[in-house]
Write a structure and sequence with these properties.
- The protein has about 140 residues and is α+β, with helices and mostly antiparallel strands.
- Helices cover about 30% and strands about 40% of the residues.
- The chain has a seven-stranded antiparallel sheet with strand order 1-7-6-5-4-3-2.
- A hairpin with an 8-residue loop joins strand 2 and strand 3.
- It is globular and about 40 Å long.
- The N and C termini lie far apart (about 40 Å).
- The model has no long low-confidence stretch (mean pLDDT about 95).
Length: about 140
């Protein structure tokens, strides 16, 4: 069985603002990471830093403004293989966006299953934090 997941949420902001809040190095630090080494740019590897989780290199495999970001990062801190994360931004109308996040590529073993569940909850938290930040100016980390 392939280990993968997909989550989604509606954000009542235009697609360009939602996309910018994920791709821009200054915006993403207002609700998700504590620091980042730069903006998301196709072909680049940047470091996302969290005070509680440390540094995580993220490679941008594809970036289509206002549509899609494809990332690759380690499946787990101790693993030597990567998973793929796809963030899709779909306009519902001119004032609302459907954000979809999927991740796949874990090894089919208990460690892979555990890591997939951890990341699924992490991405769901990110999507919820993004929604609260954009719609209400609230940082859920505080």
């Amino acid at each position: 069985m392939e280990l993968k997941f997909s989550i989604q949420t509606r954000i009542d902001k235009p697609v360009d603002g939602v996309f910018r809040a994920v791709a821009d190095e200054n915006e993403i630090c207002k609700y998700f990471t504590n620091k980042t080494s730069g903006p998301l740019a196709e072909g680049q590897t940047i470091i996302w830093h969290w005070s509680s989780y440390g540094d995580h290199p993220v490679t941008v495999k594809r970036l289509i403004p206002n549509e899609k970001i494809v990332l690759e990062w380690k499946a787990n801190r101790d693993d030597s293989y990567n998973t793929e994360v796809i963030l899709s931004f779909e306009p519902i109308d001119e004032k609302s966006t459907l954000l979809k996040i999927s991740e796949s590529g874990w090894k089919e073993n208990q460690k892979g299953l555990d890591s997939s569940y951890d990341n699924c909850s992490g991405w769901q938290h990110m999507a919820s934090a993004l929604k609260m930040y954009l719609q209400h100016g609230i940082d859920l980390r505080n």
